[in-house]
Design a protein that fits this description.
Immunoglobulin-like; 6-stranded mixed beta sheet
Amino acid sequence: MRPYFKRHAATVAACTVAAMLLAPAAFAQSGHDHMHMGMDHGGAAAPAEVPPLKILMPGNGDIVGSRLAIVFETPADIGKMTMGHHMVGTHLHVEAGDTVLMPSQEQLVRLGANRYLFLFDLPAQAGTQVLRISWAGGNHKTIESSAQKVTVTVAPEGAASE
């Protein structure tokens, strides 16, 4: 880490967090209490069936760098099932540890038919991390039958990669 950033790491981290909180397309929360500011909790109920989700990468037990990402597959109409759609109904949740994110369609990189990449904005702490992806209803409660998760190890910064 460069000396300037080492001395100002707390300020840089605080500015980064503030920018994430102010970005209109990104909605995030810590913990699993599902409190969402400015959102209508009376949204559409979760449908009886939701499109399947499958995490393609990383794999369970993989050793990864501090920039976490998930590659997943779903036949869902992503434009209608992500934040930013005019109706807050069933939508995507992506989690790393205690941070729950509700990405917009613009935050997903389409990798081909039904495959998408989501890149987490902030670097992860070294150690074990659980990455999870699921659908949530308009009330922001996880639809457990859709949940997929993998456990990865984040390598310490500067560790040699394979």
